[in-house]
């Protein structure tokens, strides 16, 4: 595949990889079909001894009930060394999340390791991500101009909203490398599932086993809900094996 022309927002060496591994589209569709998306995947991760679930109390959704399934394109931001006033006077921004959108494929999820209290994604940035075909964003940090993402139905899970720009406060140091989101290591290409309960990151190499386990859990949940609706006695429910 011909490499995409770079945006120039970050040095070429900051882009750790451009050839992300790809999950089969049917796997993504099967994940999306799970009834209790984040819950089933979180339980499957537990069953396999994996860690990757982050509750909505830590990274909250901004658009109400939404579901998202896609692969991660990652951004790592750090605090700038210079004073924001001096940086603003110099007029040179060092944020480069646009290169992640440039590297993304349709349906990918922008995953940003950033800072809380300042914006790691502004309104225009969300508009560009949406135009590039990204499914949404997960930000370990803050963003601003929530109207922009709402207008485009572009969901964001984050630590909150802020009016403070990151343009003079943040520097993007890496695209499509490893990031840490609320203590969870995430590599570019890993699977991201999210809903109003929270976010779960599934390592790329474990996406198949996790899917199989999650589908078993989901099927058990559906049987249990059917039994409850059918009026099965509490005694029978207590001894039934659903998972």
UniProtKB/TrEMBL annotation:
<dbReference type="InterPro" id="IPR036704">
    <property type="entry name" value="RraA/RraA-like_sf"/>
</dbReference>
<dbReference type="Pfam" id="PF03737">
    <property type="entry name" value="RraA-like"/>
</dbReference>
<keyword id="KW-0479">Metal-binding</keyword>
<dbReference type="InterPro" id="IPR005493">
    <property type="entry name" value="RraA/RraA-like"/>
</dbReference>
<dbReference type="GO" id="GO:0046872">
    <property type="term" value="F:metal ion binding"/>
</dbReference>
<protein>
    <recommendedName>
        <fullName>Putative 4-hydroxy-4-methyl-2-oxoglutarate aldolase</fullName>
    </recommendedName>
</protein>
<feature type="binding site">
    <location>
        <position position="144"/>
    </location>
    <ligand>
        <name>substrate</name>
    </ligand>
</feature>
<keyword id="KW-0456">Lyase</keyword>
<feature type="binding site">
    <location>
        <position position="145"/>
    </location>
    <ligand>
        <name>Mg(2+)</name>
    </ligand>
</feature>
<keyword id="KW-0460">Magnesium</keyword>
<dbReference type="GO" id="GO:0016829">
    <property type="term" value="F:lyase activity"/>
</dbReference>
């Amino acid at each position: 595949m011909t490499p995409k022309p770079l945006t120039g927002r970050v040095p070429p060496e900051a882009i750790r990889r451009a050839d992300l591994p790809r999950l089969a589209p049917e796997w993504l569709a099967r994940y999306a079909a799970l009834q209790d998306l984040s819950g089933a995947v979180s339980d499957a991760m537990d069953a396999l001894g994996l860690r990757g679930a982050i509750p909505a109390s830590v990274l909250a959704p901004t658009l109400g009930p939404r579901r998202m399934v896609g692969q991660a394109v990652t951004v790592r931001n750090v605090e700038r060394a210079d004073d924001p006033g001096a940086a603003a006077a110099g007029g040179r921004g060092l944020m480069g999340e646009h290169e992640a959108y440039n590297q993304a494929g349709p349906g990918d999820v922008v995953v940003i390791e950033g800072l809380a209290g300042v914006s790691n994604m502004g309104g225009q940035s969300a508009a560009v991500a949406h135009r590039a075909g990204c499914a949404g964003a997960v930000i370990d940090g803050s963003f601003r101009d929530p109207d922009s993402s709402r207008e485009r139905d572009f969901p964001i899970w984050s630590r909150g909203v802020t009016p403070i720009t990151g343009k003079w406060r943040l520097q993007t140091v890496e695209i499509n490398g490893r990031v840490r989101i609320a203590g969870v290591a995430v590599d570019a290409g890993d699977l991201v599932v999210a809903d109003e309960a929270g976010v779960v990151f599934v390592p790329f190499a474990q996406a198949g086993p996790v899917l199989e386990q999650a589908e078993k859990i989901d099927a058990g949940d559906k049987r249990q809900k059917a039994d409850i609706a059918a009026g099965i006695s509490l005694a029978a429910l207590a001894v039934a094996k659903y998972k």
